[in-house]
Amino acid sequence: MSLADVGPLLLVGAGRMGSAMLEGWIARGLDPDLTFVIEPQPSDRLRELAETRGIHLNPDPAEGPAPDKMVLAVKPQVMDDVLARIAPFASPSTLVISIAAGRTLEGIARHFPTGTPIVRSIPNTPAAIGKGVTVAHANQAVDEDGRRVCTRLLESLGVVEWVDEEQLIDAATAVSGSGPAYAFYLAECLAEAGHAEGLPQDLAARLAAVTVAGAGALMLESGLPASKLRENVTSPNGTTAAALAVLMREEHGLGALMREAVAAAAARSRQLAT
Ligand SMILES: NC(=O)C1=CN([C@@H]2O[C@H](COP(=O)(O)OP(=O)(O)OC[C@H]3O[C@@H](n4cnc5c(N)ncnc54)[C@H](OP(=O)(O)O)[C@@H]3O)[C@@H](O)[C@H]2O)C=CC1
Ligand SMILES: O=C(O)[C@@H]1CCC=N1
After folding, report:
1. Does the CB atom of residue 101 touch ligand 2 within 6 A?
2. I need a surface site. Which of 6, 123, 163, 266 has the fewest CB within 10 A?
């Protein structure tokens, strides 16, 4: 699906997540000449996109018309300061899309004129290769057209899930927003454990990475539930069963740890609201 006709977009903050999204959008045809990026410390890649593709880097927001769409990708902690400076250049019809963890619609809306359409969303870094998932919640001012444009932008980065209740975004942040880090840490731990069993370090790292990636791809492509795929690996009284007996321990197993980790992330998301 091409984004060629999506129209002007201002991205505020092109750090790790903002630039991952920008890469996805440019790759899917977002018009570079209608793409404006505000980023105090542009990466080499961002400068290259400005020089070779013609995206507008650090334009003066006071010049030109109000942005049609504004994507907020700065850290939650600086959002209020940034909005105090940027929001006055928006118009009441500017579609605002925030990807900041924790920042509520209410907290964002107070910087904009009443009735501004705002979407609070949480993407994840696999968006850079079109394999992300974004969970989004819109305020009442977002009409069908705004939701369609937003869906197109976010779908170009992977799967989009709209939710009707804003507080679900905190839980989604803990599962899919932060989730890639858990998968990468699983690969790190698996590699270290393999090394401890005698595998050379680089071979252990390769085995762990390809195994985690392959398991993820199989889960998506087969459409089977994770539990069924796990059972398919587990021969009766075999090696997997021996490992799972450890991982599935009631009190100190991975399930209990994951519940604690996800609860900590969701609590931190709620805390970042203020
Ligand atoms: N990383 C992830 O996996 C995910 C992140 N998010 C959310 O995305 C947002 C960005 O996170 P992430 O990309 O990791 O963080 P980064 O710190 O990598 O990116 C934020 C960027 O915003 C820049 N910035 C700071 N002040 C301004 C300003 N006044 N105007 C424009 N840009 C500014 C920062 O520059 P400088 O470094 O100079 O301060 C930085 O490059 C956060 O709100 C986070 O919650 C959401 C989902 C996933
Ligand atoms: O760690 C964070 O706060 C951000 C939000 C989700 C992923 N990274």
Report:
1. yes
2. 163
Q: Is the CB of 253 under 6 A from ligand 1?
A: no
Of the bound ligands, which one is closest to the alpha carbon of residue 265?
A: 2
Q: Say how many C-beta atoms besides its own lie within 10 A of residue 168's C-beta.
A: 14
What is the dotted CATH code of the domain comprising 9-166? 3.40.50.720
Q: Which fold has domain 179-271?
A: ProC C-terminal domain-like fold (1.10.3730)
* 73 labelled binding-site residue: yes
State the CB neighbour count (10 A cutoff) for residue 232: 12
Q: Is the CB of 134 under 6 A from ligand 2?
A: no
pTM for this prediction: 0.95
- Tens-digit pLDDT profile for residues 162-206: 999 999 999 999 999 999 999 999 999 999 999 999 999 999 999
| pLDDT digits 0-9 by tens, 19-32 | 999 988 998 999 99
CATH 1.10.3730.10 domain residues, the chain: 179-271
Q: Where in the chain is the domain with CATH 3.40.50.720?
A: 9-166
Are 185 and 209 in contact by the 8 Å Cβ rule? The answer is no
- 173 Cβ inside 6 Å of ligand 2: yes
Distance (angstroms) between ligand 2 centre and the Cα of 177 equals 6
Q: How far out from the chain centre does Cα 68 lie?
A: 22
Say if residue 76 carries a ligand binding annotation: yes
